[in-house]
Amino acid sequence: MKPTILILNDFSAPHRESLAQCFTVLGRDDIAGPAAEEGLYRIRAVVTDSGAGLSRDLLARLPALEIVTCSSAGYESVDVDALSKRGIAMTNASEALLDDVADTAMLLLLASWRSLVAAHRHVESGDWGRLGEFPLQRSLRGKRLGIVGMGRIGQHLIGRARAFGLEPAYFNRTERPEVGVPFQPDLTDLAAWADILLVIVAGGEGTRGMIDERVIRALGPTGTLVNVSRGSVVDEPALIAALRDGGLGAAALDVFRNEPHPDPALTSLPNVTLLPHMGSATVETRSAMAQIVLDNLDAHFGGGTLRSVVVEPPNRRQHARFS
C-alpha cells in the first residue's frame, strides 16, 4: 500500500504527477469536512510552503505524520517546536535558491544605489531631452555593506559584494569566524557603520521587527536598506516615516508586510525600488525547489539521507517505500 501524503500548497502539476506514481496524494479538498477524518489518520507526510503553512490544529489531527517537506526556504508558518517534540522530520528547499536570491539582492542593491527606476523614467518621459543629463550618482566601489544574517545566502553574498568593490561586515545571532568577514554583534552599530544594510534572515516571531526605528535611523539619510528576507522583519511604519522625512535615503524591497497588497504609503514613495517577492522566481530554481521535495520524500520512505534538514527526528528510522 502506498504511503499517503497531503499537499497543502500549489505544488507544480508535473511534480505532483511524479508523487502520484509512488504515493497516495491528497489535497486540501480531500481533508475538508467530518467525513475526511479517517483519511487524516493515514497521512504520513505533508508538502507545504511558507504561504500554505501547517496549522497547529491540522498538525494535531495527523497522528501518523512522519515528515513535513517545505518547497520554499521559509517555514515560519509551521510550528517547528511542535514537530520537534513529536519527532517529526522537517526539510525545506533552501539549498536550491541560494544563487537566485543572492543575485536578486545584488540586483536591488545596484538598482537602488544608482537610481535605476528614476533614470528609466528620465529617459521614458523625455526629460533627458528637455531637462538634460540625469543627476550624478555615487559609485558603489569602496562603500560599506552590512549583511544582516550570515546563513547560506548571506555567505553567497560575500563574494558578490567584494566583486563590486564593497567592504562587507555582518550581524548574526552567533559569530561565524569561518566566513572571513568582520562580525558586528550590535545591529544598530552595524547600521551606523554601513552605507547599505542588506537583510537576509529567516522570518517568524524571532526576527519580527528586528529592523526597527533605531536601526533604520542609524543607517541614516544617505543609507540604503535592502530587504530580501521577509516583510515582517522590518518595522514598516518606521521605514515609511524615515523615507518620508529624510531619515533614510532609500529602500530596495522584495518583500512587504502585507503581500500581495503592500501599503500604498510605501509604494508611492520616490525613493523606493520594489520587486514582487521574486527572489527565487526563475524556472530553474522553482523546479529545483520542487525536486528537493521529491528527493526528500523518496529518501525518507526509502531510508536515505534527507536534504536541507530543518528538524531531524531523534532517530533516523528506516522506512520501506510501500510499508
UniProtKB/TrEMBL annotation:
Q: Which UniProt keywords apply?
A: NAD, Oxidoreductase
Name all D-isomer specific 2-hydroxyacid dehydrogenase NAD-binding domain ranges: 107-279
Taxonomic superkingdom: Bacteria
D-isomer specific 2-hydroxyacid dehydrogenase catalytic domain location, by residue?
6-310
The answer, when asked if Transmembrane helix is one of the entry's keywords, is no
The entry sums up its family as follows: Belongs to the D-isomer specific 2-hydroxyacid dehydrogenase family.
Cross-referenced PANTHER family, in alphabetical order?
2-HYDROXYACID DEHYDROGENASE YGL185C-RELATED, 2-HYDROXYACID DEHYDROGENASE-RELATED
State the name under which the record lists this protein: 2-hydroxyacid dehydrogenase
